[in-house]
Prior knowledge:
Layout: E1 4-9, E2 14-21, E3 24-25, E4 29-32, H1 44-66, E5 75-81, H2 85-102, E6 106-110, H3 111-117, E7 130-135, E8 140-147, E9 150-156, H4 162-172, H5 179-187, H6 210-226, H7 230-261, E10 265-269, H8 276-289, E11 292-294, H9 305-317
Parallel strand pairs: 1-5, 5-6, 7-10, 10-11
Antiparallel strand pairs: 1-2, 2-3, 2-4, 7-8, 8-9
Amino acid sequence: MDPKILAIESSCDETSASVISNGKVLNNVIASQSVHHKYGGVVPELASRAHQKNIVHIVNETLTSSGIKKNELDAIAFTKGPGLLGALLVGVSFAKSMALALDIPLIEVNHMQAHVLSHFIDEPKPRFPFLCLTVSGGHTQIVLVKDHLDMTVIGETQDDAVGEAFDKAAKMMGLPYPGGPMIDKLAREGNPNAFRFPITSMPALDFSFSGIKTAFLYFIRDEVAKDPSFIELRKNDICASIQKHLVDMLLEKLEKASVEMNIKQIAIAGGVSANSGLRDGLKRKGEQLGWETYIPDFQYCTDNAAMVAIVAHYKYQKKIFSNLNASPMARMPLNIK
């Protein structure tokens, strides 16, 4: 059978839809929300309203560009969580209504599992088992992936996510939203060894980013007190230095996991996997340690429906369907088997 599945992603501030046919993603339509820029971060209520405004248009555009008609669909997939509850509700409500109207199965997808499986949209694809560092504004995890639907978190942040650390550092410097990509851009012209910051050492494979955020806050405060023009004069060096520290913290734990698990198939995923410092650092580390490294295409790093579609494809093969009582979960655990 050649299943055709419509996937919907609405976990945060991107409304996205994608159609997958026989395991091949046909498109990946995304509507971003500029309304949050003036607030310096995502406002949940505004995000859910924007999803309500965009979702019908996005789904229609996705079906039209894929050449697949509604009555040709075999299932509807949606992001169940984690994410913003109000935003998730828009996606799940639309998906349930459409599945009911078409009398076809409903498939729920874990958002973080979707990030991991984004590596199976295009070639090259990692071999099992592999380790995936999933990094975003809300999550920092090292995931042991044994199969498409068999994965376990073996290390994660105990406080803040690395993406949030990037964004907060940018905000402390007065950089515009979204801060993480701005730090990455400025860091390319800076000296990564210009400044040093203390980091928190965590046991096992876990992370902690609250300490370096606090240290960075005091650093900026003290330097600006001595010279009000400090940030403007050293902006590139500050960005390069904080980015290097955060990337080094990630790669240190990833190397430790690789040694402990004796696995050299290494991948990264999630919004922060678009960071050039992390991508370059992973490639260098891979060359040093003999890793086979996998980095997703930029369009599959941030929130998107194509990654939801690929999970739905594997779930459809095993007939793992949801019922119409399915509801979104803001804190949905990743450990799946």
